[in-house]
Amino acid sequence: MKKNIVITAALLASALTLSGCGGSEPELTGVQVEPATGDTTTASAVPTATKAPRSPRGALMKKVGEPSRILVKEGSDDWAVNFTVTDIQLDPQCTSPQAEPSENGHLIAISVEAATAPEPIFSEVVGSLTFNAHSWKVIAANGTTVNTVVSNASSYCLTPAEHIPAMIGAAEKVVGKVVLDVPDATGTLVYSNGGGTGWEWEYGAK
User: Fold this and answer.
1) Which residues face 70 on adjacent strands?
2) Which partner from 2, 92, 144, 165 sits 20 to 30 angstroms from 185, CA to CA?
3) Of 2.60.40.1240, 3.90.226.10, 3.40.50.1440, 3.40.50.720, which CATH number belongs to 5-203?
4) Nearest by Cα to 188 from 59, 18, 97
5) What is the residue extent of each domain of the chain?
6) pTM for the whole thing?
7) What is the mean pLDDT of residues 51-64?
8) Residue 13 pLDDT > 60, yes or no?
């Protein structure tokens, strides 16, 4: 399998197509990365570059609405995965009849939109893709990594129709939510799809 390479757009993308009308930001997992301006929908030239922000953990620091990509190969703008965290809701209104109170203190509902490339690109570059709760971890406000973010409360807060599909394959477009059970009203979400340094989002009041 080829080394995963990720790219981030600087502006909000439109639903499902995740197309941007502003700048794009190449992201290389495990390598210092540089943002650049250009079309986020198709391969394009990279006219300018400055260093992109990474957290102390090496993850790309994101804001809600900024798309992220896993590129086909280094130096290319062709992507295997294109996804956006479109919303992070603290203590959402649960809709499932089986809903339970949070076990850790607070629930967080993360809204995600994603698109994947067709075969054989998807399998060669990514292999598999999931946004389920086990793909996330949380850094608490005091800097401690939360031991578990999965509970009955997080699993049964929403109806099945609201959850993002558990496993995502080639040539798919998906939209849905994943719910985590966390101890603090503020902290950091970390997503990595099972490998690499991944991406981070701050949540809660500043």
Assistant:
1) 6, 81
2) 165
3) 2.60.40.1240
4) 59
5) 5-203
6) 0.76
7) 86
8) no
